[in-house]
Each structure stands twice: as structure tokens, then as C-alpha cells.
Amino acid sequence: MVDRCQVFWARKYRLELKDPAFSIRKGFLLSAGGSRAPRLFDGVRLTARYFFDAVDAEYTGHLTYSNIENRKDLENNPAVEADLAGAVETLSGGFGNRTTVLFAGRGNACRSQMAAACATFCTGGRIRALCAGLSPAERTSPLMVRSMADSGIDMAFRGPESNEAVMDHVSPDIVVTMDETCRNQSLTGVREICWNLPPAPQIEGRKMDELRDKIRTLVDELVQSLELFPAKKD
């Protein structure tokens, strides 16, 4: 498991890149075993710590249960329900009331990807930032990925999604379209903002950096206009 995570470790420590959600990503270990050995879970806990560190997640705790042999053993454990409730509270604390912002583009390969990543990165997750496109591209723009990497943000493992796929499981409070052609006519009763950014196919060379910086400024202005819960303290 640790071996398979070397790519993430290298991007974090060798390339000095940060995942946009690094400040809010949390890891929690759940494990059960049949043995009653007192140190049964020492190895898996250590492995989990290395794994979560590699993927930029804070190790926030674990629930481990020994002497679990049969299907009903966990169900019959009187402590499990309270343990789980406590774990859920630890993992979700405060984030249920976030403002959800959908950054909508055409192919969701460049502008909307940058906007969502900047919103997550710059606010420490105080905004639930999502992105989607009317006609998703096959992959994100390599030029965009390089530009974001130059600013220390890792976009290598993100891919385009459709409006339908995102809207199936979330109702945004605000929709920010990258230009007028990205509007979703089916959305009603949702606050809409249009940034009128140049189409991504027209962006070449260093102009991608200019677009990145413009989007960062627009994100900062949007954040200042919203009432957010306090940022997470280190």
C-alpha cells in the first residue's frame, strides 16, 4: 500500500505540490480482526499514517476491533454505535453548512477546474467548490496543469465532469459560469454569476498564467462577498 503511494509522496515532497483540498482532507482508519493480540493493529495504524500523509490527508483517528469472527460480532458490540457517531462528528465538524459553489464551464478542462481548485485552496475548504461542464472534455488541459503546478497547486489527478453528474448529488447555492455560453438553462432559482473569461482554446503559452491569476482574483472577490465560517487554525 505504501509502495503504491510513492507517486503521491514524490509530488508532495519532491515536486512540492499541494492538492487543492489538502487543508481539509482527513483520513480515518476502520479495521477489524479475529485475533485478540494486544498489538494486532500496530502495523496497520502505522501504514495508514504513512498513506494519509502521502495523499495530503490529516490522520484524525481510528476505530479498531479485535476478536471479530462472525457477522454479528460488531453489531452486538454495545460501543460501536457511539464510536461511529463520535467519528462522524470528528470528520464532519462544521462543514455541513458550507456554501456550495458550482463553477461551470464548457469542457470542464481548464477555467472551471482552476476556479474550483483556487476556491478550495484559498479558503481552506470553507467553500464547497465544485466544477462541471456542458460538454466535458476527455481530459484536463496539460497547459492548465502546468500553470497551476507553477503556483504550487497539483491538478494532475483531476478530470472533467458533466453538469448532470455533479447535479445528481448536489444542489449549488451559487453557479459561476466562465462565459455566457456555459449557462445551464435548466437551473432555476439559483444565484448566477458570469465571469466572461476568454474561451480556453484561445489560451496559449504564458497567457494561461495570466488567466490563472485573473481567476484567483475573481475567486478572492467572490469569497469576500460571502459570509463564511472561520478558517481552520493550524
Question: What attributes characterize this protein structure?
Answer:
234 residues, 4-stranded parallel β-sheet, 2 domains, alpha/beta
**Poorly predicted residue ranges:** 229-234
- Identify the strand order in the major beta sheet: 4-3-5-6
Kindly report the oligomeric state of this protein: single chain
Q: What's the story with the biggest beta sheet? A: 4 strands, parallel
Write the H/E string, N to C. HEHEHEHEHHEEH
Quickly give the CATH architecture of the largest domain: 3-Layer(aba) Sandwich
The level 1 CATH classification of the largest domain is Alpha Beta
Structure classification: alpha/beta
- How far from one another are the termini? 28 Å
Radius of gyration: 21 Å
Percent of residues in helices: 25-40%
What is the CATH third-level topology name of the largest domain?
Rossmann fold
Please work out how many helical segments DSSP would assign.
7
Task: Indicate the mean pLDDT.
Answer: 88
CATH superfamily of the largest domain: Response regulator
List the domain count as a whole number: 2
Strand content: 15-25%
Short description:
This protein is of the alpha/beta class and 234 residues long.
Q: Can you characterise this structure?
A:
This protein is of the alpha/beta class. It folds into 2 domains: 3-93, no CATH class; 96-224, Response regulator (Rossmann fold), CATH 3.40.50. The protein has 7 helices and 6 strands; from the N terminus they run αβαβαβαβααββα. It has helices at 6-13, 42-54, 80-92, 111-123, 142-150, 163-167, 207-224, and strands at residues 26-32, 58-65, 99-105, 127-133, 174-177, 191-194. A 4-stranded parallel β-sheet has the order 4-3-5-6. Strand 1, helix 2 and strand 2 (58-65) form a beta-alpha-beta unit. Helix 4 (111-123) packs across helix 7 (207-224). The chain starts with 5 loop residues before the first helix and ends in a 10-residue tail after the last helix.
